[in-house]
Amino acid sequence: MAKSAPKSASPAERAAELRKELDHHNHLYYVDAAPVISDREFDKLLQELTDIEKAHPELVTPESPTQRVGGKPIPGFEKVTHKVPMLSIENSYNEADLRKFDADVRKGLGAKVAVEYVAELKIDGVSMSITYQNGKLAVAATRGSGDIGDDVTHNIKTISAIPLKLDADTPPAVFEARGEVYMTRTEFTRINAERAAKKEELHKNPRNLTAGTLKLLDPKEAAKRKMTFFAYGSGATDGVAIKSQSELFETLKKFGFPVNPHTKLCRSMDEVIAFCQEWDTKRKELPYDTDGIVIKVNDFAQREKIGYTVKVPKWAKAFKFEAEQGTTKLGAVVFHLGKFGELTPVATFDPPVPLSGSTITHASMHNASWVAEMDVRIGDTVVIEKKGEIIPQVVEVIKSDRTGKEKVIVWPDKCPKCGGPVEKEETANSYNFICANTGVCPAQVAKRLEGFARRTRMDIKGLGTEVAIQLVDSGLVKAVTDLYRLTKKQLLSLEGFADLSAQNLLDGIAASKERGLARLLPALTIYMVGEAMAEVLVEAFPTLDTIVVAKPEELAKVKGFGPKRAQFIREYFDSEAGKKIVADLKELGIKTSHDKKAAPAGGLPLAGKTVVVTGTLVNYDRITIEQAIKDAGGKASGSVSKKTDYVLAGEKAGSKLDKAKELGVKIINEDEFRTMIGAA
């Protein structure tokens, strides 16, 4: 039972006692899994502390349990450089892979050396680094590229399973805990039920919802979604010595972190394999999603001897569970719209299928060609598989189960969203049906609005899927240029907007006016004109006015275009909607020209150099990195040869990196590249 306050206790004494008691109960709940009071009693203690701190603000401390949801929204995410890189772990898929891993480990250590492995569940969540300085939570960052992540401290503080201060009388000067933030399936179901009641789009799976929640700017909104945490590792430390994974688990628990109880110290690969086989079935009983088992050499000294490749530690391996399949009936088909009006058939299942710890109620069936090729019908018995343990899909139609009552899928002749006409669209290898009402169909406008705001296009922070739908459904935005006419008063009338979030969105919209023609063109969602093609087009036609009046044959001469792409551009700007967009852009002061960068006095840093990019980068996507190479005078190539000058290797670099090593090509990382080109 919770203690009552002694009558003689001062507010400061009672606040200190309550903080200690609440931390104790959090430890019992999350670390020991042995709570001794009810949630209601815990909430009473928390409320008492809240009342004391409200009456005596000078008593509030940063690590007080009341501060988990007390922060204000932040303007954006800062980057955090990991002092120790957060490396990925190589996957394995069968017993042979695991035995080869064991053989490689023993080869690195010597055949007669005893090896212990720690096997632990691979939680399907978001990897996190949490650094404590002198025992107090200082910064929490996502894994990101492995070298650089996003600062999400404001949202991590809302997770009760993560201690705000280490449970230690003399904490280390620095301790970086690593682990997985995740969401239970019960919480995921609760959130989706609320969204269903509001007729909002449902979240796809707990992992994606967790990742999205961590990227919310307002911690109060994040706190409404109950995330939790398991610690499994450490990064940079100062003042604590740990010799093995087993010892690390005990240290993490002592400091107040929850550690997954389903781990095993294995003294042979046979024990590891048995553990993997056991949990391939038992994982379905867990309240959260898992997608495999992580196997690590237990002894840290042995790890150092075994070493690393460029990308992964050689002392660890992830065993991935096979994709689970289920059988059910295809109960009905509904049609969703894409940004170009394409109708995507979505199957609903009767009954829903339990797969990999979640219940699958529906799955996309790609397009009309796919439906025809599979000959799938309403009422068919179908086999469902979770691709990559995340995306459900129909992989087989069991036609031998047909009774004759199955119904062919009939495509609508009117758009399910706007009632406009539906037309068949054929390409070289497939066909689909589209809503021809492209200019005003609200579903298409919302999709285009979301694409307009993408980081590689107009880069409007805060304008994601949900906000785009809100703006269109409210009638505030009927075309992308309506964004630039929005007022704060209008935004405040929408659910979820407060003064700061409304102002941040307006500021982002205003800043986007200066992005330039190369980013504006793909933002307009002209068919077959993405970021790469836009970069080429603006070199030949550096203003929007020159593109608007260009003849099809002139556009077709642009490298990589041809008659078909040229015709799509002409159709867009000749349409009434396109003409209005152009007029609006000029009226609203959006930059519609392309500035060619002048060469620096000392010459371009990559002049005459060929650069191959492989892997995932932090500051660039594929389009922007190729443009950065081009702006620096270099040539971006897709293949490695003896003529390659540099290979820029990011996270998860593949065979191109191996080829570079084989040929002796100079390999650089992203920081080195940015230094070379003089990037800030």
**What is the CATH superfamily classification of the largest domain?**
DNA ligase/mRNA capping enzyme
> Helix- and strand-based class?
alpha+beta
Q: What kind of sheet is the major sheet?
A: 5 strands, mixed
| Rg over alpha carbons | 28 Å
Task: Using the coordinates shown, work out and report the CATH topology of the largest domain.
Answer: D-amino Acid Aminotransferase, Chain A, domain 1
Number of helices: 24
Q: What is the top-level CATH class of the largest domain?
A: Alpha Beta
CATH architect. name of the largest domain: 2-Layer Sandwich
Strand content: 15-25%
Described by the principal axes of the CA atoms, the overall outline is globular
**What number of domains?**
6
Walkthrough of the structure:
The structure is a single chain. The chain has 680 residues and is of the alpha+beta class. The protein folds into 6 domains: 59 residues, Helix hairpin bin (Helix Hairpins); 230 residues, D-amino Acid Aminotransferase, Chain A, domain 1 (2-Layer Sandwich); 102 residues, Nucleic acid-binding proteins (OB fold (Dihydrolipoamide Acetyltransferase, E2P), Beta Barrel); 73 residues, Orthogonal Bundle (DNA polymerase, domain 1); 71 residues, DNA polymerase, domain 1 (Orthogonal Bundle), CATH 1.10.150; 68 residues, BRCT domain (Rossmann fold, 3-Layer(aba) Sandwich), CATH 3.40.50.10190. It is 35% helix and 21% strand. The strands form 7 sheets. A 5-stranded mixed β-sheet has the order 2-11-10-3-9. The longest helix has 20 residues. The radius of gyration is 28 Å and the shape is globular.
